[in-house]
Design a protein that fits this description.
The complex is a heterotrimer of chains A (567), B (198) and C (367).
Chain A: H1 7-15, H2 28-37, H3 41-69, H4 80-114, H5 123-142, H6 177-205, H7 218-250, H8 263-297, H9 304-317, H10 333-361, H11 370-393, H12 395-401, H13 405-435, H14 441-459, H15 463-467, H16 484-514, H17 552-557
Helix pairs in contact in A: 3-4, 3-5, 3-16, 4-5, 4-6, 4-8, 5-6, 6-7, 7-8, 7-9, 8-11, 8-13, 9-10, 10-11, 11-13, 11-14, 14-16
Chain B: H1 20-45, H2 56-59, H3 64-85, H4 89-120, H5 129-160, H6 169-196
Helix pairs in contact in B: 1-5, 1-6, 3-4, 3-6, 4-5, 5-6
Chain C: H1 21-54, H2 72-101, E1 110-117, E2 120-125, E3 130-133, E4 135-139, E5 149-155, E6 160-162, E7 171-173, E8 179-183, E9 189-194, E10 207-213, H3 215-226, H4 229-232, H5 235-243, H6 270-274, H7 278-287, E11 317-318, E12 323-324, H8 327-335, H9 353-363
Parallel strand pairs in C: 1-5, 4-10
Antiparallel strand pairs in C: 1-2, 2-3, 5-8, 6-7, 9-10, 11-12
Helix pairs in contact in C: 1-2, 5-7, 7-9, 8-9
Classes of the chains: A mainly alpha (567), B mainly alpha (198), C alpha+beta (367).
Chain lengths: 567, 198, 367
């Protein structure tokens, strides 16, 4: 298609809106009001992200308190009761109040822009989903005040983030800690399902002209897959939490082992949610990598169809691996073998994605601004995280590793080393689009190097206490097991990461007021969100774009060598 | 159906996208199916594991009549969809009303059955594993019937005021899709509870 | 009690110091998997480092590199090769998995029942009629004289997990379900472990001590554990227990006990009842609600909620490893268990110091 007056160019040029950012804003009260009643996907996206960053600081502080308690054996910094609340809240907060919201926030902001739409498919549902998730977080943290109050840490959940039965039954948890956990997460689950429905409907029904499914940005594919997983995986959690509440308040016996109920049933139901959930958390960071790595390597993503197939494949396979969290629970050897195999199989599409990223970099011209620094660290760390995952899938070895600090190290390698690092990359990459200002590069590099040092100090070392027999979720440990120095180093690394995050927070605030002007396309990128002003006007595009390839802006910038000639 | 019309003639085929309502309702149905699956799995897992209390065989009577009511309501709602597609609003109101009545009859049947189980057979949600899993599963389904009926009553009310017109066919059909889902779930629940476990 | 030495003193929980067949098999498998993963990591990260250096943007170069969109052959190669690696890994895993999990129980095996409690371990040897707590004794198993131990595990309350790394992987301990595992310790010594499934506030102090004895030592230990306190006890203790007015004989009268001689009860002088001696201790023990939770075989105490105390002094630690079993610790524990283990389910009984001392004196006789 060598048509000289490409509809793409025409649509995009007139879509570019140069309305200055701060004109006609209104009084302070009007601004606050507009944020509370908004149904605009961009504002809701920013609300989600800001909400998540607040809880990141809270859950991070909980982690630091855990690490202070564990810095030496037989320590007395917090009581066992407080410690149990700290690790339960740390895990629950990070998954449900940081991970999910920040990723939904980016999805909300970016998906409509990248597909050339004016907003999400259901803007009011979008607002409802955000506010019910926000309510859930406030309810969960209100638990600290419930019960006997803050010093006794009230009724904050203390049952571990996966809340195994029958510890959560009334007989063993007579207070309200389990109830706060179940109800708050139920509410947040409703918000998640609402947003997932919205994302799927948006991706399938709101694409601009010419954007066939095979021209969809990979970010949109990954968010659609992630949303499908949310629909199928969060619902089982909702179901088993409802069952738990029925047990606790209506005298049911779902998990009441003293009346014939089954503890293993809870484990199955929870992990049917829990395993796909971690793929829900990791697919959007893959989406960010799919957008950032090509732009900073100056090359199109290698193997787009394979990437689509691999992403969707990961989604489906991840539904069949859940019992690898249960290799020690007493399944038959056949059951153990089946889940070993299914878990190992998920490594194949994951490997395909990793190799495709490598091939994207290969032959490119790599620029190392902060988004790419975090993406590069992500790549190295993702490979390690995946390999320790393969080690854990070896069920016979898992019998030693399960519930030890090796597992804690593995999943933090994924959650921090891969997911958080890519979230940081996304923040540096899209902050200019959201605010019209660049984040400070020097501060970005400080943030990056502090994170790398702190992350590796903590999570590389953390594997070893696990290999030496240290179980997880213990408030203290014996001094003669050889774990002392290792735990000390882990704690120091945690504090370094804390400092790194503070540098980021400072950068976010400082750059909002004093950052360099970003313009519409500071990174010389290729997807539609860069074809409108930074920040975009409320309507996104003045004229609905029409695209002819996967990289509409590349076609614009390189009319002699458009992608549309190759499709 | 939201069909985006072709403007510049630069595309060979018209640009069509699926309709938002259908996609969204399908997603909701997917999520709800996952919830129901978990309750069905719990029911099946605990089948036969009670050491005391009434068993399904002892106390359950197969609700043939009420099942026929509910499942036939799918046919009548289809007639209603058919009518509104053709702009026949009076027929639409008739078939829509019949659907609602059949749904209410089904609910009455569930209520009568639960009355018998609780008062005569002393089966409650806390009696034993069968009680817990039975009331949860059937209750979850009944709650979905109630939500469906409430939505349908709204539509009925709007329609009686003349506010529902043929151009709203698409929205009405999205709700009808939900109702078909509720009926399909009943097929599964009925089979598991009244056929397999008795 | 002979002090056994930790089998791998500086790193007693290391999974790389196996001393039993399941642990050995898991260990070999782990080394195999580790080497494969290491090779993969070196390969991929090596390529990545090379690419980042070789293909970095040169300064002042604003041209774009050639755009490459993909290659079917390359995609296939890095799909097929991982599949092959996974086949190898899976087969290696399956071999160990089936050999360990489905190993048949030989007739020479020792049967032990493990019952997890919040926050202690109960051990029963059904063939020997022995019940003990927290410290497990197993016989040595050698090639010439194999005596593997087959454990059946269940829980009295919530989920726990039995993990002694040097003797094998962990097995979860569930209520309403019996799981099975086995181990054949190949070297005598003390092996440590602990509960590996979060079970409540004192999950961290639900420790395990496994003493692997020579067959002779094991027999001796069993014989001692089989004796009831009625057989072992001094006569005055048995008589005090029978003359105790609050005594409901819940169990059969021990066969060799001396006949009741009417009032052989404690004298009425305050001095005598105030004395800190085992007899008075037993009186206090049986009058307070200690016996509703604890068993001392051969006496009226047959509570099942807490650990069996019949041979308490044969154990090195108390409170499932929370403290060493010394008279001072024992007395402090009885006064308030929360000093060692806040959140454990034994309440502080709020007895007087004298009563605590008396009970301690009694417990010290339970060898």
């Amino acid at each position: 298609m060598a048509d000289q007056s490409l509809p793409v160019g025409h649509g995009i040029e007139t879509a570019l809106d140069r309305t200055p950012v701060h004109s006609g804003r209104g009084t302070y009260l009007e601004v606050v009001h507009s944020w509370i009643v908004t149904v605009d996907h961009k504002k809701l996206g920013i609300l989600y992200i800001a909400y998540a960053l607040v809880f990141l600081l809270v859950a991070g502080s909980e982690a630091l308190m855990i690490r202070i308690q564990l810095i030496k054996p037989l320590n007395n910094f917090v009581s066992p009761f407080t410690f149990d609340r700290l690790f339960t809240m740390h895990g629950t907060t990070m998954v449900f109040l940081v991970g999910m919201p920040i990723l939904f926030g980016f999805g909300n902001y970016l998906v409509p822009l990248m597909i050339g739409a004016r907003d999400m498919a259901f803007p009011r549902l979008n607002a409802f989903s955000f506010w019910i998730s926000a309510f859930a977080g406030i309810l969960l943290y209100y638990s600290f005040i419930g019960g006997v109050g803050l010093a006794g840490t009230g009724s904050a959940p203390d049952i571990a983030w996966f809340a195994y039965a029958p510890l959560t039954e009334k007989a063993f948890s007579p207070g309200h800690t389990t109830d706060y956990w179940a109800i708050a997460i139920l509410a947040s689950g409703i918000g998640s399902i609402g947003t997932a429905i919205n994302i799927v409907a948006t991706v399938f029904c709101m694409r601009c002209k010419g954007m066939t499914l095979m021209r969809l940005p990979l970010l949109a594919w990954l968010y659609a897959t992630m949303s499908f997983l949310v629909l199928v995986a969060v619902s089982p959690l909702t179901a088993c939490q409802a069952m738990l509440l029925i047990d606790r308040y209506l005298g049911g016996h779902f998990f009441d082992t003293q009346a014939g109920g089954s503890a293993i049933l809870w484990a199955h139901f929870f992990w049917i949610f829990g395993h796909p959930e971690v793929y829900v958390l990791v697919l959007p960071p893959f989406a960010f990598a799919n957008e950032i790595i090509p732009v900073f390597s100056r090359k199109a993503i290698f193997g787009y169809p394979a990437m689509v197939a691999a992403s969707v494949g990961i989604g489906f396979i991840s539904l069949g691996v859940w019992a690898h969290h249960m290799f020690t629970i007493g399944m038959t050897s056949f059951g153990n073998a089946f889940f070993t195999l299914s878990t190992m199989l998920v490594a194949i599409p994951t490997g395909i994605k990793t190799f495709n990223w490598l091939a994207t970099i290969w032959g490119g011209k790599v620029r190392f601004e902060t988004p790419m620094l975090f993406s590069v660290a992500f790549l190295f760390q993702w490979v390690i995280a995946g390999l320790t995952g393969v080690m854990l899938s070896v069920s016979a070895w898992n019998w030693q590793l399960h519930n030890s600090y090796f597992v804690v190290a593995h999943f933090h390698y994924v959650l921090v080393g891969a997911i958080v690092f890519m979230i940081f990359a996304a923040i540096y990459y899209w902050y200019p689009k959201m605010t019209g200002r660049m984040l400070n590069e020097t501060l970005g590099k400080w943030h990056f190097w502090l994170m790398v040092v702190g992350f590796h100090m903590t999570f590389d070392v953390m594997h070893f206490p696990g290999l030496l027999g240290m179980p997880r979720q213990i408030y203290t440990y014996e001094p003669d097991r050889g774990w002392n120095t290792l735990n000390f180093i882990v704690t120091i690394g945690a504090f370094i990461q804390g400092i790194a995050v503070l540098v980021l927070v400072y950068n976010l605030v400082h750059s909002y007021f004093r950052g360099e002007d970003a313009g519409p396309d500071p990174w010389d990128a290729w997807t539609l969100e860069w074809a409108t002003a930074s920040p975009p006007p409320a309507y996104n595009f003045a004229v609905e774009p029409e695209v002819a390839s996967r990289r509409p802006l590349w076609d614009l910038k390189h009319p002699e060598d458009p992608d549309s000639a190759f499709e | 159906m939201a069909t985006i019309p072709l403007e510049h003639g630069t595309r060979e085929t018209p640009w069509t996208l699926p309709s938002r309502g259908t996609v969204a309702m399908s997603c909701l149905i997917t999520a709800e199916s996952a919830i129901f699956t978990i309750f069905v799995v719990a029911y099946l897992y605990y089948m036969g594991r009670d050491v005391q209390g009434p068993t399904p065989r002892e106390v359950l009577e197969v609700p043939i009549f009420y099942t026929v009511c509910l499942l036939s309501s799918s046919f009548f709602i289809w007639l209603a969809e058919h009518a509104i597609d053709r702009g026949k609003m009076a027929a639409f109101r008739l078939w829509w009303g019949v659907t609602i009545l059949l749904g209410l009859t089904f609910l009455y049947g569930t209520a009568a059955e639960w009355y018998k189980l609780i008062v005569h057979d002393h089966l409650t949600i806390s009696t034993n594993l069968f009680g817990t899993t039975y009331y949860s599963l059937v209750g979850l389904h009944a709650s979905h019937v109630i939500v469906g009926l409430i939505m349908m009553l709204f539509v009925m009310a709007f329609s009686l005021f003349g506010a529902v017109r043929p151009e709203h066919a698409y929205r009405v059909k999205t709700l009808a899709l939900y109702w078909h889902f509720v009926d399909a779930v009943w097929v599964v629940v009925f089979t598991v509870v009244y056929v397999v476990s008795r | 009690m002979a002090q056994a030495s930790l089998a791998h003193a500086s790193l007693p929980g290391s999974i790389f110091a196996p001393h039993s067949t399941p642990a050995h098999e898991e260990h070999s498998l782990s080394l195999f998997v580790l080497s494969i993963c290491l090779l993969i990591y070196l390969g991929v990260s090596g390529l990545l480092v090379y690419a980042l250096i070789r293909f970095r943007a040169r300064p002042h170069d604003n041209t774009e590199p050639p755009q490459v969109f993909g290659s079917l052959q390359i995609e296939l190669s890095w799909t097929i090769i991982p599949i092959l690696i996974i086949v190898v890994l899976f087969l290696g895993t399956a071999r160990v998995l089936f050999s360990v999990q489905d190993a048949p129980e030989p007739p020479t095996a020792l049967d032990v029942t493990v019952i997890g409690h919040q926050f202690w371990w109960e051990f029963r040897y059904p063939k020997y009629n022995v019940v003990t707590a927290n410290e497990l004794h197993l016989p040595l198993s050698t090639k010439s004289d194999p005596r593997p131990s087959f454990l059946k595990l269940t829980s009295a309350d919530v989920m726990h997990s039995f993990w002694v790394p040097q003797l094998g992987g962990k097995t979860d301990v569930l209520p309403n379900r019996v799981n099975q595992m086995w181990m054949d310790p190949l070297e005598t010594g003390l092996y440590v472990g602990q509960c590996a499934q979060f079970c409540g506030p004192e999950h961290a102090k639900m420790l395990l001590r496994v003493y692997v004895d020579t067959p002779e030592d094991f027999e001796k230990w069993i014989k001692n554990q089989q004796r009831t306190q009625a057989e072992l006890a001094q006569p005055h203790i048995a008589m005090a227990s029978m003359a105790n007015p609050g005594n409901q004989s819940a169990g059969p009268v021990p066969p060799n006990s001396p006949p009741t001689h009417g009032t052989v009860a404690a004298t009425t002088s305050t001095e005598a009842t105030d004395a800190i001696n085992p007899r008075n201790g037993q009186l206090v023990f049986e009058q307070q609600s200690c016996i509703s939770c604890h068993t001392v075989a051969g006496t009226v105490a047959n509570g099942r909620y807490g650990p069996d105390l019949t041979h308490l002094m044969s154990r090195v630690t108390i409170g499932a490893g929370a403290a060493l079993n010394t008279p001072g610790n024992l007395e402090a524990w009885i006064a308030d268990p929360n000093t060692f283990k806040p959140g454990c389910l034994m309440p502080a009984m709020h007895l007087s110091d004298r009563q605590n001392a008396q009970i301690t004196a009694y417990l010290l006789t339970l060898k």
